[in-house]
Amino acid sequence: MDQSEKNVVYGTEDLLTGLCNSVTRVLNVATQSKIHYSAMVQRITKIGLKPDIGCFVLFDGGFSGLVVLNFSGPAAMEIYAKYMLTMGMPESELASAFTSDEVANILGELMNQIVGDFTGKIRRELQTNITQNQPKMLVLTKQVMLSVDTPLDRPEIRRVSFFTENNNIFYLELAIDRTEFIKLHDFDVSEVPDPDDLLEFQQANQGKSAPAAAAAGDDDSDELLRSLGM
């Protein structure tokens, strides 16, 4: 094996792909719908919050960066409504406008899950650690756009377009330090346990242990009766 085959390099586009996959993974499960992203990525020079709803998260550790999600009003309402209906809320109780605090809170919660999924993936696959702050959400008008300063020496900034099941659009923007991860040797990537599988396994074990415990109790009772000559 030559040196180029041995030293696998992970760069900005690999990190971006991992983040995009976290977005689709979390939102597809949360909304029980199909969300996908464009095969084309934009290289941009500024990162910022744009109408109708902007959300950002800073992360630091093995490398530093900033993640921004900019939702159009229809995209925000579609994701919010499908998530809440999946959670069992009656349609009559849903917020009626994307400017509602409830919509912003739900999108912030989902973004927190997205970045959490991404940081876990980084920990497993790149063997480094990054931490995140709490997402900040802002409802913006068409006249307001905010640039976000990043404390990065050599920032690389990318934008990816996402499409909901109803073809509404939102954007992911990522700014990170210029960095590369070079694999020095092979290692096993630990898998994430599925919470549903763990719950089923625990319930199955409890179901098996209950009859076993009952049988053991019967055996003890029989032994006691025999010792008493009964």
From TrEMBL:
Keywords: Chemotaxis
Region (Disordered): 205-230
InterPro entries named in the record: CheC-like_sf (IPR028976), DUF3334 (IPR024513)
Domain of life of the source: Bacteria
Gene3D superfamilies per the UniProt record, alphabetical: CheC-like
Name of the protein described by the UniProt record: Chemotaxis protein CheX
